[in-house]
Design goal:
The protein has 2 helices and 5 strands. The protein has about 110 residues and is α+β, with helices and mostly antiparallel strands. The model has no long low-confidence stretch (mean pLDDT about 85).
């Protein structure tokens, strides 16, 4: 699996998702609800209602691919983002289970 997040955008679906959905149904959600192109190579992240399961849909050169993670303990913490797009740090916090109350970026 090559989730090349350095050059891909990452979008988090704001609703909850039935984890039985597969490639085509998730692609329809991307088009109809997120108003994005699932063939772009971007990552589209979906959480179930309990936030114990996560699916990522992406186009991998010649077909759709799904990456799936299920937690045995705890829940995924939905990052506070403006809109659907997440940055790389939000993505890593989501995967690692880090709950960030306040993020303040220092001027550079």
């Amino acid at each position: 699996m090559s989730l090349e997040i350095a050059r891909n955008r990452i979008f988090l679906y704001q609703g909850t998702c039935d984890m039985r959905r597969s490639f085509d149904k998730l692609a329809c959600v991307v088009i109809e609800h997120m108003h994005e192109n699932p063939l772009s190579g971007d990552l589209f992240v979906f959480l179930n209602k309990k936030r114990t399961m996560l699916k990522v849909l992406y186009w991998d050169k010649d077909g759709y691919a799904i990456w799936y993670k299920r937690l045995e303990k705890g829940r995924f913490m939905r990052p506070k983002t403006d809109g659907l797009e997440m940055n790389r740090s939000h993505w890593m916090h989501l995967l690692e289970g880090v709950e960030v109350k306040i993020i303040k970026k220092q001027p550079r």
